[in-house]
Amino acid sequence: MSKRRDQLIAVGAALLVLLLAGSVMTAVLSAERNGRKALEALQLAQLQQLSRVLDGAFAPALTSPVGVANPSTGQPWSLAPNDAADRAGLERLQSAQPTARTGYVLVDKNGTVTNGTLLTDPGAVGKRLSRPGLDAVLAGTPALLPVSSDSLTTPLLTIAIARPLRTGPAGPVLGAVLQESDVAPDSLFTTLIVGFRRAQTDEYSFLDPNGVVVTSTNPSAVGKRADAVLLDRTFGFHRHGKVVTATANIKSVHWRATFRQTTDEFEGDVTGPLRSALLLLIGVALFGSALTLFVLLSRLRAARREQQRLADISDAREEFISIVSHELRTPATGQLGFLQTLLDHWDVMNDGERRHTVSQAYANARRLHALSRDVLDTASIESGELPYTFQVVDLQPAVHSAVDAVSTADHELLFSGDTDLAVRADPERIQQVLANMIDNAIKNSPVGSRIDVHVARQGDDALVEVCDRGLGLTEDELERSFEKFSRGRHATVTGTGLGLYICRKIIDAHGGRIWAARRDGGGAVVSFTLPLVSPATAEQPLAEVPATGSSGV
Amino acid sequence: MTLRLVIVDNDEAVLELLRLDMRLEGHEILATALNGDDGLAACAEHGPDTLIVDLRLGPGINGLEVARRVRRPGLRVVLYTNYVTPSVVTEATAAGAIVVEKGNLYALRQAVLAESGGVSRPS
Hints:
The structure holds 2 protein chains of 2 kinds.
Chain A: H1 3-63, H2 84-95, E1 102-108, E2 113-116, H3 134-138, E3 143-148, E4 158-166, E5 173-182, H4 188-193, E6 203-207, E7 213-216, H5 228-231, E8 236-240, E9 243-250, E10 255-262, H6 263-345, H7 351-382, E11 391-394, H8 395-405, E12 412-417, E13 422-425, H9 427-443, E14 450-458, E15 461-467, H10 475-480, H11 499-509, E16 513-518, E17 524-531
Parallel strand pairs in A: 12-14
Antiparallel strand pairs in A: 1-2, 1-5, 3-4, 4-5, 6-7, 6-10, 8-9, 9-10, 11-13, 14-15, 15-17, 16-17
Chain B: E1 4-8, H1 12-24, E2 28-33, H2 36-46, E3 50-53, H3 63-70, E4 76-81, H4 86-94, E5 97-101, H5 105-113, E6 119-120
Parallel strand pairs in B: 1-2, 1-3, 3-4, 4-5, 5-6
Helix pairs in contact in B: 2-3
């Protein structure tokens, strides 16, 4: 299983989450787009419907013959200035109006005012009315006249429904009747269309053929020329910048119904929640993919670590077996070889040669024994089963006997030390530690050199030092001496590399400390401390230390 | 038959054993060495009949490399090692050396006297 493949799987999973999120996002965006289009269509349809309704309302007023004859007399209008019958007819029409904001005016075929209700200036009778669009009406076509200030019945701006007056359906035009309605912000018309509003921010306006706002939900726009944005648009729905508009045609009166709102407000209702959901979705997708990636990668790392740990253990075990088998084999073959030589050449050897050969076989046997003990001790230490029998020990005689137990003809071994150093220890293990340290010093120093073993009190501890005059230790060796399988750099130095490792484990178990240092003037110093036991604690008599020390590796 | 020997091994104890045994077998020990370079120098200086050399010699060249470099007609090389593997045997044979597994002196004695290359294992 490759690491790269696992990482690819993790990244792939994260990508899948992103892809999923991406497809959902696309769907949401598409839904948003469709929703927006539907909203536009709905708005335009609403405006067109409104226009049709208005169209239907205006058309009969323009085409109906009702009121063309004098409703008071049923006879044609006389159109004589201030004619009483004409006046009565106008009053009749006026009384049908729900408010007093619509006035009626009669003009003759020349456009001269002959009569009127609610006239603001009675002197207007006899003067010509110059209202745009009036000429067409006098030519025979009914019309809704554009917004104008030339009103006679009110000082306000008005529109006017103007119908030609004839003697009969096909008779010549005698004059016209004008029904003026104001376009003030509070006009009846305006009050009616305010009902179309969906929100406070939308604006419905109705423009006359000149582009003047006849009525609007925006009071300040009424009676004025409409904004360019409303004027310069063909019919339909439009978006321009931050504003949307819709325009519909009111054919009968050539008006335009318009709608205007900011884009945000227009889409807010529909796209607002959609947009929030989208943002939430994106956030969740990103978080999800990041989380997926994180979880997968951290699991991967943990699995790798565990794999590595097991591999390390396996490697260490294999190395251990390899080193141990080699190191055990060397003294075993040495022992075999010397004995074989002795047997094969017994007759030709003299006594001295025989004794020497046997002693060599013995030395190899001892080495084999020491090695096997180290291996067993290491196995016990690592399984946590190395047994200790702790007791209060006087360290000075214990160390002294360990030194005495070492037999070396090649080195000068000197002992010195303070007395009365009571420690709590397993005397046999301390002997083993000292034997290992001294053996180590012997192996690492030249024949004939001196080795000092020293015991001293140091604060609350007892300090034991073994100093040699060998080649000393490098910085790296100072660090590594106490690791398993660490061995001296000298080719002729043999051993499992377990001696100092075992020493450290034993001293650790005693609550002490062991370390190596360079000796001033060359060589190495290996030292350990053990905590001193106060005389009060040391009630029991000091243990007798066996004088039979074991030799080190 | 008395042969003139050079013995190379990084273990002093092994050298001592082989010195003793080969002397008692009637051979003459011209020199011993603890590493490959010293072994090569001893061969060049003394011109032995047979070289006994360990495979693993610590730092420096190993026994196989020593065998390759000392190769000459009339010189028998015995690779005396704990590590007898097919690849070691192949390489040693290519270098004209005989491989003997450490641990049995009979096999070594025969290999020292043998006429041709090959592998000799303890019985």
